[in-house]
Specification:
The protein is of the alpha/beta class. The chain contains 26 helices and 18 strands. Helix 3 packs parallel to helix 4, helix 13 packs antiparallel against helix 14 and helix 14 runs antiparallel to helix 15. The protein starts with 6 loop residues before the first helix and ends in a 5-residue tail after the last helix.
Length: 666
């Protein structure tokens, strides 16, 4: 393929200028497009930080499409948030499909468990599995929907199905009969996989990408290049996927699906086997031993919500292993003597789950996975005191380097937030990435005129007495919310502080719609926020991936610098590891991590060239601690004030300007 002339696509009189309404020429987008084209053409690794407003998705999608079509290749586009994936699928790619005049094909790749199984749906209808009225109602809706849906995707249902319902109608890899299935020709999953193999672009999320890595490439078709957008989340996505977890709730759920003690229904009730009573008894025994094991856990470590890291092997008697192994063996006998392929698969899948539970629990208790950190979470629930044993790798850099970066010639990492005061060094070391080229592209926005940064010096620090700290925080938030006329995100690093501040500001609902994370789904919160002047109280999921251009959002309040909680087991283990290697963890890990997260929070505010607003960081350590300068230097350059009156003046001035230009309602 001849090198792509990026001016033809991103230039002032290029392809986008003639096709995209409201197109604004951005030199940064042109440069990024050229870098991506070169990396794909020459088979290189590239990392690009593209500031907010660069238009980075089109800057990599256009070269990826051109290269893939010209060379009959396949490119994976991997994102972290659903919001970005939806932007690419619902806006960017349909636009390019309509106007690019190229015969390119694309497909979204979802995990197999997201698809309806027509065979299992039919089997569930015949068995009459559901006794709960809500489950039965949802099942009836799914039956009707199955005859109309084109995709069979769970996300296309008009509601979020209960786990127990989808478990009986959704596709499960272990229960798939493949070409021997009576519904194979109409199977949603296999029809979609055919599209994957014929597509030039595969749109995935980071979780599915790592599922493909863990399954030796069996999940996705072979591909020739990958673009990781929102690449700042790669380490956490890989860590999560490679981890182990066993809980009493997951064990109970598995056992109830085999044989429910109250309803007497479950997988076993659908299988013809002469010693069925013996297997049902074995399930009961396992359930009793699970009770005994977790009772041991709660007696030893308490019954109140807590997170406890295990520095050494916990002195717990594994009462589950033997009965679970015996249940596994009985299920293997059913598998060997099953009278139908469906029965054989059900028994095989259940036996595999027994094996996986036993392996995971043994590994967690014996701590025999080198380089892992192990901990216990106790969560107080209304119906069940939940105990969760977890183990995750402390480092994933070597694994990522070996399994991903050394095996793929063309890898592009991008995000608006990849650099810290150390440049790209932090992210590259954390994930084991050594690019041929790295580039930082500034945002095209005029931050000095569009944004104001408010850094007060008169508030208590976060380590002050909680009552004093949250009272001062709430009072300042009220002033800022009123100055902005609502239209505010208040971002927290702690649920507890969020709830305290929300309760102290609840009286504001007389004037503004208040939306607190946890009360509604994030999607519903954003929908309502766009409709009427509102205040969102949010934690992690609102710091990134949320795009609200225009007048609906004009104030972002960051209540605290987003340092990871040092007592979190994985954070604590990473800090210890750095100290062992004579590396200062605060400057080499905690500050860079917090800088990237702070940049994400700041980036919620200005989303287009006509946006204006104020970012308030209500953490006085920005001004009083030496490291504050690193945070400040990482943020877009704009005017910094410490006086609330200047914030109020900024809003008044820009509101008047907006009304004069007809940008905001009078």
């Amino acid at each position: 393929m001849d090198p792509m002339d990026t001016q033809n696509y991103f230039g002032e009189s290029g392809f986008l200028s003639g096709k995209m309404p409201g197109f604004e020429h951005r030199p940064q987008q042109t440069e990024m497009g050229g870098l991506v084209e070169q990396a794909l053409r020459e088979g290189r690794h590239l990392i690009v930080e593209a500031g907010t407003g660069t238009g980075k998705s089109l800057a990599y999608l256009i070269p990826a499409i051109l290269w893939a079509v010209a060379n009959n290749k396949k490119v994976v586009i991997s994102t972290y948030t659903k919001a970005l994936q939806e932007q690419i699928l619902l806006h960017d790619l349909p636009f390019l499909k309509e106007h690019l005049n190229l015969p390119f094909r694309y497909a979204i790749c979802m995990g197999h468990e997201n698809y309806l199984s027509l065979r299992r749906l039919k089997r569930a209808r015949q068995a009459g599995l559901f006794t709960d009225s809500l489950e039965e109602k949802q099942f009836e809706v799914i039956l009707d929907w199955a005859g109309r849906t084109v995709t069979g995707l769970r996300s296309d249902l008009p509601f979020e199905p209960l786990h127990a319902v989808w478990e009986d109608v959704g596709r499960q890899k272990d229960l798939c009969m493949g070409k021997n299935c009576e519904t194979h020709a109409s199977c949603f999953y296999f029809k979609e996989r055919k599209r994957w193999f014929g597509a030039h672009l595969l749109i995935v999320n980071h979780h599915l990408f790592f599922a493909n890595v863990a399954n030796s490439g069996a999940v996705l078709p072979n591909f020739d290049a990958v673009v990781f957008d929102e690449a700042q989340n790669l380490e956490e996505a890989a860590t999560s996927f490679l981890g182990l977890e066993v809980s009493n709730s997951s064990l109970y759920y598995f056992l109830d699906r085999l044989h429910h003690p109250r309803t007497k229904k479950g997988v076993l009730s659908r299988i013809s086997y002469e010693r069925l009573a013996e297997v049902q008894t074995a399930v009961t025994v396992v359930r009793q031993r699970v009770d005994r094991f977790f009772e041991q856990v709660f007696e030893e470590f308490g019954r109140t919500s807590r997170v406890l890291r295990f520095h050494t092997r916990p002195l717990l008697d594994n009462t589950v292993y033997v009965p679970l192994k015996e249940l596994h063996d009985l299920l293997k006998e059913i598998e060997a003597s099953a009278r139908s392929e469906e029965d054989r698969l059900e028994a095989q899948a259940a036996a595999n789950r027994c094996f996986e539970f036993n392996n995971a629990l043994s590994a967690l208790l014996n701590q025999n996975l080198e380089g892992y950190v192990y901990w216990l979470e106790i969560v107080e629930k209304r119906r069940l005191l939940r105990g969760v044993l977890r183990g995750v790798p402390i480092h994933v850099a070597a694994e990522l380097k070996e399994q991903v970066f050394s095996k793929i010639d063309r890898v592009i990492l991008t995000s608006a937030t990849l650099t810290t005061h150390q440049g790209f060094k932090f992210i590259e070391e954390r994930i084991g990435f050594t690019p041929h080229e790295e580039k930082t592209l500034d945002s095209p926005f005029d931050y000095p005129s569009q944004a104001l940064l408010y850094l007060p010096r008169d508030l208590p620090e976060p380590n002050e007495k909680i009552e004093v700290y949250t009272a001062a925080l709430a009072a300042r938030c009220e002033e800022l919310v009123r100055a902005a006329g609502g239209k505010t995100f208040i971002l927290f690093t702690s649920y507890a502080v969020m709830h305290r501040v929300y309760e102290q500001l609840e009286f504001l609902d007389r004037d503004y719609q208040l939306l607190r994370q946890g009360d509604l789904s994030p999607r519903e919160m954003i929908r309502r926020f766009k409709e009427t002047p509102s205040v969102i109280f949010g934690t992690n999921s609102f710091w990134q991936g949320i795009d609200i251009p225009g007048d609906a959002l004009s104030s972002v309040i960051i209540t605290k610098l987003p340092f990871d909680v040092p007592s979190d087991p994985i954070t604590e283990a990473r800090l210890e590891n750095l100290r062992k290697n004579s590396i200062d963890p605060f400057s080499h890990y905690q500050i860079p991590r917090a800088i990237i997260q702070l940049k994400q929070g700041f980036g919620r505010l200005i989303r287009k060239k006509t946006d204006t607003g104020v970012v308030s960081i209500l953490d006085t350590r920005m001004a009083t601690r030496g490291y504050g300068k690193h945070f400040l230097a990482a943020l877009p350059k704009c005017r910094v004030v410490a006086d609330l009156e200047e914030v109020q003046s900024f809003f008044t001035h820009h509101s008047a300007q907006g009304k004069a230009k007809g940008l905001v309602p009078s």
